[in-house]
Request: fold
Amino acid sequence: LLNMINDILDLSKIEAGKLELRMELFPLETTIDGITSIVKVLAGKKSIALDYKIDPALEEIEADPKHFKQILYNLLSNAVKFTAEGGNIALKVDHEPGGGLSIAVSDTGIGMRAGDLDKALEPFGQIESVFEGKYAGTGLGLTLVKTLAEMHDASFSLESEFGKGTIATIIFPAERVDTIH
Reply:
């Protein structure tokens, strides 16, 4: 419930032009470890395996730490929500050509039809006809992820196949990434 309220408040601030990012360099691996440890508890309740791999050369990212964590948490908790018991979720953090950073969350969840991808990115865009109200939420998580990614000069994309799962990818530009040289 608290996460839903925070999503609504942040989206309201964004729409009013009042959300300001506080950019700073922070360690990528320890930040991701913290978020994944929280989400692993949720995944464990459904016997979902959550594996992640971080390129060891990626040291720090320049972003707003609070909103970076929110992006990651929203992507991972969505994957848990829409993945059946015993499924799998993978988080991969890697270099992009040109020095950027990609964060990809893939799951073996219910997936979406091609025509539902745009709706899933709209505020309150739940795909009720497919899910029949089975999954609680505000329908703001992916909208907020997309908007926060764009505020960080990052791109956000979704690939999905109905009945097979979804891959959500965020690509941060090279100027936001500090690597071990």
In short: Strands lie at 24-27, 49-54, 58-63, 88-95, 101-107, 155-161, 165-172, 177-179. The helical segments are 2-15, 28-45, 65-81, 117-120, 128-131, 141-151. Confidence is low (pLDDT under 50) at residues 128-133.
